[in-house]
Amino acid sequence: MEFLATSLLELIVQTSTNLPPDVRAAMSLAANAETPGTQSSQALDIILSNIDMANQDEGPICQDTGMPTFIVHTPVGVNQIRIKQAICEAVAEATRLGKLRPNSVDSLTGKNSGNNLGEETPVAHFEQWEEDEIEIKLMLKGGGCENKNIQYSVPCNLDHLGRADRNLEGVRKCILHAVWQAQGQGCAPGALGVCIGSDRAHGYELAKEQLFRILDDVNPNPTLAALEAEVMEAANELGVGAMGFGGKSSLIGCKIRAANRLPASFFVSVAYECWAFRRLGVRLDAATGAITRWLYRDPARVAERVARGEGFPLTGREVILTPPLTEAQMRALKVGDVVLISGEMFTGRDNVHAWLMKNPPPVDLNGAALYHCGPVMLKEAGEWRVKAAGPTTSIREEPYQADVIRRYGVRAVIGKGGMGTKTLEALKACGAVYLNGIGGAAQYYARTVEKVLGVHLMEFGIPEAMWHIRVRNFAAIVTMDAHGNSLHADVERASGEALESVAAGPHA
Ligand code: SF4
């Protein structure tokens, strides 16, 4: 097995940096379906550019490289323990090289292991099979979309949809509800893996497994094929849109399977995958571990460029912001404005926000732009370099954000997916704004960072530390302003109404 280590490292690097062709094609279609000039269309332009940038420079497509999940099939007699060891070594090496973010956190102490190894990480499932080769599939599914997975126990009552019964109509309602409840927080347009039936734990596992299907395949079960098609059509009428900005492209795939269940249980388990749908696979020679062929991609074919034109088109109407920001500047902004930030900002996410509740900030946050971001950072020649730095899901900071704004004078909060009413009230009271970056556009945003000026609270680990960075032309959209307006609340309301009307579909 002299080639096993290099084969596994190549699998991880390609999965993290090179989106599979079926996903690229679906994202291009989604972008072309969108109305030019809308916020969703602008978001998709950044996403498409980001896909190309990641491929060109072999950088992580998204800074959240997720929970590495390997599905391994081996011929009878192959040593699976040896493969598990090699997977762990390759994961640690890919982390050292900055292709994976250190994402493994001890759930009791909160300590990040720094190399993606720890209790039950990475995840590896092994099966034997009758074939001669080894097959290893890998999925990197980030936390933002993982948090939007949802499981329904039918019969149940759903917002905007009423009762979901134990039949196909009930299942369809659950799946559409899953798209609606994700809004932009899972980095829409997303894809769904669904399992109808099974038990709670296995249902989720089978739902995730559906995400290994190719996006444009057709379900061999005609009933499920029809349901998949129906969901796709109805979901794209909800108006959630890319990043939850409203628009036509909310879903790029829906893959459903059914499994037998207990008479007393009827679960519909939904795995929500973001647009940064990273999954690849390899076949390996069982004697040497060398790659004999790739799954999902043809390495002989150069990945086609997906970006349209110059990527994110500037109109000249963008508002230039240079922190420190003033109350008057923030009150002049309104929902829908596009801003370009040049100057200094600080990152801060879950640990930083919890820490700020009990401790003063290590830096002056008066007039600051606070970026919800857990970057991939590498130290090169004694200096920190940003390898990937897109926004993380902001709603997790809802319990803290209003206090942070009020206490420390933060003027702009940058993240993705929007925040709730408590934060909106603080924005209004203090004169601050919420700026939505484009989730997953980690390479695009990494290129806006001119310099890492410093780091604080490093004891929280790289993703959770407070990074002090200087950026240039960092693009974001005002989605919550100081006048009490929230694009997120508006889209959630409008898509909820749309959900009520699409619910009256063929199975209704
Ligand atoms: S694209 Fe969004 S949801 Fe997906 S891993 Fe990145 S930040 Fe998380």
Task: Name a few traits of the molecule.
binds iron/sulfur cluster, alpha/beta, 508 residues, 5-stranded mixed beta sheet, 5-stranded mixed β-barrel, 31% helix, 20 strands
What does this protein structure show overall?
- With about 500 residues, the protein is α/β, with parallel strands linked by helices.
- Helices cover about 30% and strands about 25% of the residues.
- The protein has 14 helices and 20 strands.
- A five-stranded mixed beta sheet has the order 2-1-3-10-11.
- Helix 12 links the parallel strand 17 and strand 18 (about 435).
- It is globular.
- The protein starts with a helix and ends in a 6-residue tail after the last helix.
- The mean pLDDT is about 95.
- Iron/sulfur cluster (SF4) binds next to helix 5.
- Gyration radius from CA atoms, angstroms: 22 Å
Tell me the strand percentage band.
Answer: 25-35%
Helix content: 25-40%
Main-sheet strand order equals 2-1-3-10-11
Largest sheet: 5 strands, mixed
SS class: alpha/beta
Count every beta strand, where a strand is a DSSP E run of 2 or more residues: 20
Mean pLDDT: 96
Shape assignment:
globular
C-alpha end-to-end distance: 55 Å
Separate helix tally: 14
Uncertain runs are: none
Small molecules bound in the structure, each named once: iron/sulfur cluster
